[in-house]
Amino acid sequence: MLRLLASGCARGWGAGVGAWPALGLCHSRHSPKRQASDAPRNQPPSSEFVARPVGVCSMMRLPVQTNPEGLDAAFVGVPLDIGTSNRPGASEHPPAKAQCKTGSLKEGSGILAVATVLPPSPAYSGRFGPRRIREESVMLRTVNPSTGALPFQSLMVADLGDVNVNLYNLQDSCRLIREAYQNIVAVGCIPLTLGNGICKGQHRSCAQGSSAMGLNTAPSPGFGPRRIREESVMLRTVNPSTGALPFQSLMVADLGDVNVNLYNLQDSCRLIREAYQNIVAVGCIPLTLGGDHTVTYPILQAMAQKHGPVGLLHVDAHTDTADKALGEKLYHGTPFRRCVDEGLLDCKRVVQIGIRGSSVTLDPYRYSRSQGFRVVLAEDCWLKSLVPLMAEVRQQMGGKPIYVSFDIDALDPAYAPGTGTPEIAGLTPSQALEIIRGCQGLNVVGCDLVEVSPLYDLSGNTALLAANLLFEMLCALPKVKTV
Question: What domain count does the chain have?
């Protein structure tokens, strides 16, 4: 552990270990301080000599440093998950409505109702806490023998459901909650918010629910980078299947995590964009550990600033080209539409693979196709090798810069259950390998692996799969030697 820390500190890239979250590549032509080609390169320690539980938790137990200068490649984490719409970290709020018997609150009706605003529990994040509490309340009865209280003989009680909060805007959520509770108390109803307990000695109360958002810790895709790093300890230095020798070809390190703002999505995007501008400025190719898919938007802003509009290989169950949700233009379902809006993509060189699932429209892929994207549905990949498809992709991409964005939900949930928005009948791990290995020879300028949600990854297999796919991405980068 001391050797790893010393290696990171010796390179001295700003303030402290753990400030950056991606895997970056630097080329000698971009940096005057670049080491000679025959200089020793960082090597993950072999389990023959160093026990796997030993050392800092870095990707493949590589040295940790805070500066991309002199690196060929670097792992970077972006632990952001506030742009999600379903499960925590890639996540959907509790049911927006659960009507009480009266259907509304009326002056003098004597209603007691329950409301929900919860911190996360070990099994459920705050936004699903209210739902779980309701499920477990079925064993409760009407009388309290210990105190003699008869609440349901004394008060009119109902469940008013959940406040329909804005998952992507904390300030707007506070406004919605405040307005909801103003309406409740205006008619003399006492709100009992789930998680706060029942008030006693009152004649009017109301139960209401609102999803948590301003949290600073929860098991979710925000913790995806950490979990992926933990599962990377089984990875070794050589890829026998492809003959790739990444650690003999490139200088690689783990740059830690971008210090995102958990309470402000726009500010987080700024922080991510600035971090990646610094990484690519020295010729380093970032390999990102997400985080939800929102993180790809600011990363591509940094990429386009350096390379101009880039090609995109997007592997996902969803196109992520929605326009907005809950009035917000930015969340994990909109990043590539925002990229098109800003001219970050070379739309004739965008391929989306693995797309599937139900939709609210008959043609959910119309926007992607209207922009010139090639959309490959999951059903067109069933029971076949994707090697021929990737040959076509290589021809389409040519020699210009390309970015690879891989959402783990592209895989069938049988293989990758630990994600926020799973869809059945997805890709297989072997097809994922064919896609990534098919990128060999392309001018890849960056990659990401997003939407791993440890909360739903009880076995760790999803994070293990993610770690291996990131290793395959490293092996497919330019300048990697093969034997």
Answer: 2
Are 237 and 178 found together in one domain? no
Q: Which helix (H) or strand (E) holds 461?
A: helix 461-475
Structural domain boundaries enclosing 169: 112-187
For 29-95, the DSSP string reads GG-TTPPPTTS----PPPTTTS-TT-S---GGGPPB-S--TT-SEEEEEE---TT-SEETTEE-PSP
30-81 pLDDT, tens digit per residue, is 443 444 456 788 888 887 788 777 677 788 788 887 778 888 677 877 677 7
Out of 136, 170, 187, pick the residue that ends a domain: 187
Residue closest to 315 by CA, chosen among 355, 347, 288, 349: 355
With respect to residue 138, please indicate whether it lies within any of the assigned structural domains.
yes
- 30 in a structural domain: no
Pair (447, 341) in one structural domain: yes
Say whether both 160 and 251 belong to one domain: no
Q: Does residue 141 sit in the same domain as residue 74? A: no
pTM score of the predicted model: 0.78
Radius of gyration of the chain (CA): 25
Burial of 201 (0-12, 13-18, 19+ CB in 10 A): exposed
Note whether 266 and 352 are same-domain residues: yes
Pair (290, 337) in one structural domain: yes
DSSP 8-state class, residue 247: H
Residue 231 inside a domain? The answer is yes
CA distance 276 to 270: 10
Residue 239, both tokens: 């890829």
β-pairing, 22-24 with 443-450? unpaired
- Evaluate whether 442 touches 402 at the Cβ level (below 8 Å): yes
What DSSP string runs through 390-444? Answer: HHHHHHHHTTSEEEEEEEGGGB-TTT---BSS--SS-B-HHHHHHHHHTTTTSEE
93, 162 in Cβ contact below 8 A?
yes
Q: Do 276 and 145 sit in the same domain of this protein?
A: no
Q: Summarize pLDDT for 412-432 with one digit per residue, the tens.
A: 999 999 999 999 999 999 999
Burial 377-409 (b: 16+ CB within 10 A, else e): ebeebeeeebeebbeebbeebeeebbbbbbbbb
Q: Are 139 and 218 in contact (CB under 8 A)?
A: no
Name the token pair of 294. Answer: 């929102």
Phi, psi angles (nearest 5°) of residue 98: -140, 90
